[in-house]
User: What shape does this take?
Amino acid sequence: MKLATFAVPSPAGAIRRIGALADGWLVDLQVAYSAYLARTDPGCEAERLAALLLPDDMVAFLGHGTLGWEAAARAIEEGLRVEEAFGRRTRYRLEEVRLLAPLPRPRVIRDFLTFEGHMRNASRALGRGGEIPPAWYEVPAYYKGDPETVVGPDADVVMPHYTQQFDFELELGMVIGRRGKDIPVAEAHRYIAGFTIFNDFSARDQQMREAPIGMGPSKGKDFDTGNAIGPFLVTPDELDVTNLRMVARVNGEVWSEGSSAGMHFSFAQLIAHVSQSETIYPGELWGSGTVTNGCGLELGRYLKPGDVVELEVEGIGVLRNRVVRQPAS
Assistant: This one.
């Protein structure tokens, strides 16, 4: 499935929905499932039951496990069969809606560093001679981000007033799909709901000022609109993430081309590591870390207000965001 969170216009303002892309249509899962229930179980409280099983929040939907996925599959079929249910449309064309972040507010954000090439290039750019600490090869380290800073496709990203070296990061995002703890590597694939594009924006000059302290990143990463994801959440059965083409463009110019191949730790290994003595939950967003040559730091180029950043990942789509400047207070 290719899942999305989207907004549709209404007299009371935009209404958030979750849907799935099928045959060129974006099927409203909740409305389409209410149609399915009304047809297969006449007289049931179809709208209420559909709202319970297929809510308008992706994190809540993922928490419903197999029941939710089975309902979504039936909803897609029904949404392609009928156009309306209970006075509401079951499907839309993409140009009729506004795509939001697939997870407007993830439970938590964990961002890793799994690409050796990026680590080496960043080390050189930071004056460390390209050296990589031996521990990097043994421990899949990560930091936690702020879920409140997530934005979606075509949203403006506000460049903090305290930075002059604003950067993008081309990453693959993975979303956890079920609760678990102490998960073996061999079973970890069962806990993956899907994949999306992740742009972890960074204030590099601030990040460099903070680095010697040994904590963080803090204000080098923490600012409103600093984490863009989208446009879709693609389930693992439709996507082999071992070698996806990944491209970054700024104002239409290709700045970076890379691949998801070469992660030192697989997503299964990341899950096994994080879940040691810690429960992971549906709706967590995990970043692969920046692909080799996938950021301005490695290229010696930075973003400026007005720049349009496009990250494209094979099989997922294009995540587009415009950089705007926050005025100093």
Observations:
- The chain has two domains: 2-99, 101-325.
- The first strand starts at residue 2 and ends at 8.
- The chain is about 20% helix and 30% strand.
- The mean pLDDT is 95.
